[in-house]
Design goal:
This protein is α/β, with parallel strands linked by helices. It contains seven helices and nine strands; from the N terminus they run αβββαβαββαββααβα. Strand 3, helix 2 and strand 4 form a beta-alpha-beta unit.
Length: 297
């Protein structure tokens, strides 16, 4: 009996020892597992998780292709000596209002200077252009004359005698006979302006000259149109210039504003007071009044 009892005791101890060993191994595994799996979160990938060295995707700009540029600069032609004639356009409307200067080059350099000031003004003041309009400024129509300190282009032609209304080979400037060219638009400068204006929907035009300090409506072989008379009065009243119905100091053939009238575009000539000052403030007042009036039509 003693031997049997001893065998049973040893068997019981073996069973108890194996269970303890199994419990010990289970607890040890649990501890090791916790050590290998810390509770700290993994860091976010610096590239947003799209791959090593890849650039983050940018959101597409749906408006980029739909928005028309506010301003545009185009070379509409060249002078006899190859200088560019440049048109600067502002706004996104359907109707163009055209402001031009520098047709008499170095004889009236302040008109080109005024054109440059208008470009600076519209560049800095987008809201000055009504939504229905585009404003085009051509500051120097006679770049050769401006560079050479001459009224005429490099061919010796008075460009304000080279347009189609009542053109003549010779015309007058004060008491001096001047050349109107060999034919209407024989000069590249006049042809460039004609071609450009025939491509756009111009609803009004202002051309600056010097020097008298007065505004004239345009007319071709007859009385000025009602639209040109209204345009002249609108500009003159705002700019505080006197207005006259007709320039009759001497005969003019092939005038640019009179040609515009013949094309059905209301146009006016603004003669600055002298050949030095741009009279910017008063001309800006006239420009704004014209734009508001044309936008309201």
């Amino acid at each position: 009996m003693k031997t049997t009892h001893l065998i049973l005791v040893l068997f019981a101890l073996l069973i108890l020892g194996g269970g303890a060993y199994w419990l010990t191994q289970t607890d040890s595994s649990t501890v090791v597992e916790n050590e290998l799996n810390p509770t700290d979160t993994m860091p976010v990938e610096p590239d947003g998780g799209i791959g090593d060295g890849a650039e983050p995707l940018e959101e597409p700009d749906d408006q980029a292709e739909d928005d028309a540029p506010y301003s545009n600069t185009v070379e509409i032609g060249n002078s006899v000596e190859g200088r560019p004639i440049v048109a600067h356009t502002f706004g996104t409307g359907n109707d163009h209002v055209v402001f031009m200067s520098g047709l008499h080059g170095g004889d009236a350099p302040n008109t080109s200077a005024l054109g440059a000031e208008l470009i600076e003004y519209f560049t800095a003041n987008e809201s000055a252009v009504p939504e229905s309009l585009q404003v085009t400024v051509i500051p120097t129509l006679n770049p050769d004359g401006l560079a050479g300190d001459s009224r005429f282009n490099a061919n010796g032609v008075d460009l304000n005698r080279n347009f189609g209304c009542e053109w003549a080979a010779t015309s007058m400037w004060r008491d001096q006979e001047v050349s109107g060219g060999s034919a209407p638009y024989s000069e590249p400068e006049a042809a460039a302006v004609r071609n450009y204006l025939e491509e756009i929907n111009a609803v009004g035009a202002v051309v600056w000259f010097a020097a008298e300090g007065k505004v004239y409506p345009s007319a071709c072989e007859g009385v000025p149109s009602e639209e040109s008379v209204t345009l002249a009065a609108t500009f003159a009243n705002a700019a505080d210039y006197p207005v006259d119905a007709e320039f009759d100091a001497y005969q003019i053939n092939g005038d640019i504003t009179n040609w515009l009238a013949d094309e059905g575009v209301p146009a006016i000539s603004v003669l600055l007071t002298d050949r030095e000052n741009t009279e910017l403030a008063r001309n800006l007042a006239g420009v704004d009044a014209v734009l508001q009036a044309l936008a309201a039509e």
